[in-house]
Amino acid sequence: MRVAVVGGGINGLCTAWALVRGGHEAVVLDAAPIPNTEGTSYDEHRLTRIPYGSQAGYTRMMPGSFAAWDMLWRDLGAVHYARTGCLALCTSEGDWTGRSAETLDRFGILWERLESGALADRFPMLQTGDARFGLYMAEGGVLFADRIVDALTAWLAAHGVELRGGTRIAELRPDVPAAVTETGEQIRADAMVIAAGAWAEQLFPGLQGHCTTLRQVVAYVEPPPALAAAWQSAPVMLDLGGPRGMYLAPPVRGRGMKIGCGALNRPCGLAENAAAQPEDGLALLGVYRGRLARWEEFRVRRLRMCRYANQEAQRFVLRRSGAAWALTGCSGHGFKFGPLMGLGLAAVASGGIADDAAARWAAGDLPDMQVPGLDMPHAAAPLAAE
Ligand SMILES: Cc1cc2nc3c(=O)[nH]c(=O)nc-3n(C[C@H](O)[C@H](O)[C@H](O)COP(=O)(O)OP(=O)(O)OC[C@H]3O[C@@H](n4cnc5c(N)ncnc54)[C@H](O)[C@@H]3O)c2cc1C
Questions:
Q1: Do you find a cis peptide bond into 35, omega within 30 degrees of 0?
Q2: Which atom of ligand 1 is nearest to the CA of 7?
Q3: Band of the pLDDT at 331, cuts 50, 70, 90?
Q4: How many domains, in total, are found in the chain?
C-alpha cells in the first residue's frame, strides 16, 4: 500500500523506514526542506536512558526502543549512538531519581547505587555533597540526532521513498484519503500518518487540547580545561537536583557539551518568534551553579531553541480519523522512541495492529504489545549495570 507521511522529523522518517521494511510505498511531506535542519529532531544530540521516574510503561518499552535502534543501525550501516552510561542524582526523598529506582526495582532491572564517596570519586566534575545517592546504569547515552536524521533521509531516498520538502499540508481529507497542500494539490494515498510534532494538532482535530507547545533553549558550553578530559568520558546526566528537569550531554565523539533544564521551558505560540536570547543562556548556566565543579569557568558557546508538544502526563498521543493516524506529545523525551514508534505507526496504518491497542501502547499503557517487524535480540540481554 502507499502511505503519505506528513512530517519529516524523527517519527515521520522512522515511519517511512518501517513502511519500506514492510514492503510498502511511502511519500514524506514536510513544510520545511528534508532534512529539516531547523526542526525539533535536529540537534547534535538527544539523550536515551532506561530510568523513567514512575512511568513504568516507558521503562518497560526501553528494551524495545534499543532493539529498534539496533535494527536501524544495521540498515544504515552505521551506529550513531555513544553508549556513555547514564547518571541521575537523588537529592530528596521521592524525587524523580528515587521514583526511577523504585520502578527499576519493581521490574527487577539492575542499576548501580552510588553513595556519596563513590559519587565524589567517579564524578569529580560534579558537586554532589547534597545527593542521597546516585543512580547509574551503563546502558543509555547520546543519540547523534542530526547524523541520524541525515542518514535516514539518505537511506529513504536510496530506497525509493519520495521526499517532498517545501510541501506544507493545509488540510487532511481522511475520507478520500488525501493530504491537501497549501497550493490546493491533493496528494492521494491509501493511508496517512501525521507525525507533525507540535504542529500536528493544527492538522488533526482529534488531537486538539491534548498538548501545549513549549519552547526550550539548550546551551552548548565549554567546560573548564582542567576538567575537559573528565567530561569527555562522562555519562549523560539527568535529574541533577535543583530545578526540575536538569539534564546534560557530555562532549563525546567531537560533539559539544550541552546543558538543558525543563523548568525554564515556557509556553510558546507556533507563530511566535521565540529565538534564543543571551539571557536564556545566562539563566540556564545559573541553574547549574552549585552542581558543576568550577562552575564559574564554564563558557556558553551557542544556544539553540526548539519547540515540542508537551502532554501533561508526558505520553505520546495517537489518534485515528478514517484512513489517517496522527501522533504527537511525549513532551521532551520522544526522540529515543523514534524507530520503535515508526514500526508501530507503520503497523497500525497498514492494518497490523488494532487502533485501540496501538494508542494504548504509544501512551505507555500496553508496553508488552508485540510490535510487528520488531526484532527483539535485546529481550535476552540483561539490563544490568556493568
Ligand atoms: C530542547 C529539546 C531537547 C530534547 N531532548 C530530548 C532527549 O534528550 N531525548 C529524547 O528522547 N527526546 C528529546 N526531545 C524531544 C524530541 O526531540 C522530540 O520528541 C522529537 O524530535 C519529535 O519528533 P517528531 O518527528 O514527532 O516531530 P518534529 O521533529 O517536530 O517533526 C515534525 C515535522 O513536521 C513538519 N510539519 C509541521 N507541520 C506541517 C504541515 N502542515 N505540513 C507539512 N509538514 C509539517 C515540520 O516542518 C517538522 O519537520 C527534546 C526536544 C527538545 C525541543
A1: yes
A2: 34
A3: confident
A4: 1
